[in-house]
Design goal:
By secondary structure, this protein is of the alpha/beta class. It folds into two domains: 46-130 and 165-321, Rossmann fold, CATH 3.40.50; 131-164, no CATH class. Helices cover 46% and strands 10% of the residues. It is built from 14 helices and seven strands. It starts with a helix and ends with a helix.
Amino acid sequence: MRKFIFKSFIFVFIVFFSHLFVESTRLSIPVFEGKQEPKLKNHADIFLFGSSVEEYADSKDKDKRSISKMINSLSNKYRVESISGGAYHMDMFLELSKYIVKKLSHPKLIMVPINMRTFSPEWDKRPEYQFEKEKKILNGFTIPEFIEYAYRKQIPSLFSKFHPITQEDFENTFVFNGNSQVGKVKDFLIERKNITDLNKYIKDGFVFHYMYSLEKEHRKLKSMIELTRILSASHIKVLFYITPVDYSKGEFYFPGQFIKRLKNNVDLINLLLINEGIQVFDLSLSLNSNFFSYEARPNEHLNEKGRMYVAKKLNENILKLFPLE
């Protein structure tokens, strides 16, 4: 009996740590290409944080380069290294900033995009956009956290840290047009193939993504301020820029309202950052619909003309901040 118990214990021990080993091979952040201790090439002068907006290219684009590659082509005085991932937002940029300050050679400048859609319930509360695993990697797993990560799928009821917002919570989040509640997230989660009224689908998309009234207590604004203070304390310059929004189509659906709402939200961001001694480069109203690339629901993906416009404007601001020799 004792021998049987011992063998059983050994078997469980092997299975347990074999699973931990397998899971450890999956611990990676897309931007770091699977490396837990990233060593960026050529000691970049500038880091450009980003989401899919940084690298997205339209199928019709002849020039499919990312914004960062376009910037590098405009000047040989400095090198820009992109640190981006699909749906990355201010909370992830904060964790990346902490990692850079602690682990990497400090760049001269970090450019941080402010995507207005990230503050919306469509983005902010989506479970898969919380990036809890990536945040844990950047901060370093403790042994209990690592075990939790490895076995969260097998025993989900015991391990909830990696899913701080459930799908149910997300779907029941209220959606607002200004201060007016217009439904819940689940009312707006309609697949393109199931729509019967394309015009309503697009209009609802603008409400879902942009027509909220931003409050200074929003958690992503708090991450933005914390990021600013962390980088400033390490003497790393930061350039915030607000990504372009398809304001012309938004104004078509909400004449006299869309631009006003967008400006009000941008003004709050400006005020918060000015209080920190930081100027914001605002591109939110810089491009009309001809520079965007999406089929129906509005987003910030740009075509080659739009990406080059942003690259040129960022390059101009880089040279204003410091003439690199």
